[in-house]
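Model it.
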Amino acid sequence: MLKIFKSHHPIRHAKSFKYAFSGILHAIVNEANFRVQILITILAIVGGIKFSITATEWALFVLSFGFLLGAELINTIVEEIIDHLIHEESECARIVKDLSAGFVLTTAITTLVILIIVFQQHVQ
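Modeled.
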């Protein structure tokens, strides 16, 4: 019989967190861009503390860096799947990887613009 609903047992939820943190650790260890983005996130947090940014500005930071790191994780997922499934040169694989990288770039540019807008007000 098809099981539609998953168990809500606390152990299942604990395992889900374990798997999620394992995925993030994989990205930290294996993806240089993810490490760079974490470093930039840390520097932005330090800058935010130094300049006493507002709650709204903190919210923008959390949203933009959350999306940036999430986009990088999605890009890593796409690359891993493509590399696993397609072993030869493929125009389709290249396009999919390029689109995924473009998603990260778009998110990174948006995050950079937010950083500039927020810090410009505090540096002047």
